[in-house]
Amino acid sequence: IARLRQELGITVFLTTHYLEEAVDCDQVAFLSAGRIVRRGNPAALIAQMGAYILEVETDRASEVAEHFAPRLGAALVEADKVHFRVDSEPSELAAVQAELAATARAIRWRRPNLNDVFLWVNHPETLRRRAA
Question: SS in 3 state form for 57-125?
């Protein structure tokens, strides 16, 4: 696709469920119920997610989200997983990780990706807050 774009100077529309395929695109658009809910350059959208994504797997997801919201901001809660968008340094995350040790089955922090953008813009709570 990149070669076609370069050699022929054409615009290519790509639809995919595999967002890693869209990372090198100039623009992406996320749809929900047939409407564009977010669009932009993939790198810029990823940068808006923060420095890290902190994922916590726990049986007390809502409690963890509520407890850490004052420090880490609003969370995305999916069944037994809590996702936080974090701008803290790794040393600060280590303190959070130590505090979570008793309630979490798994704790992972990583750099955000386009899948995270998709999850946050298509999460019902996120959409309600943005519409308000």
Answer: EECCHHHHHHHHHHHHCCEEEECCEEEEEECCCHHHHHHHHHHHCCCEEEEEEECCCHHHHHHHHHCHH
Residue 127: which residues within 8 A CB-CB, separation 6 or more?
32, 37, 121
| pTM for the predicted model, two decimal places | 0.80
Tell me which residue has tokens 């370069």. Answer: 6
Tens digits of residue pLDDT in 30-89: 988 889 999 999 999 999 999 999 999 999 999 999 999 998 989 999 889 999 999 877
Cβ(110)–Cβ(52) below 8 Å: yes
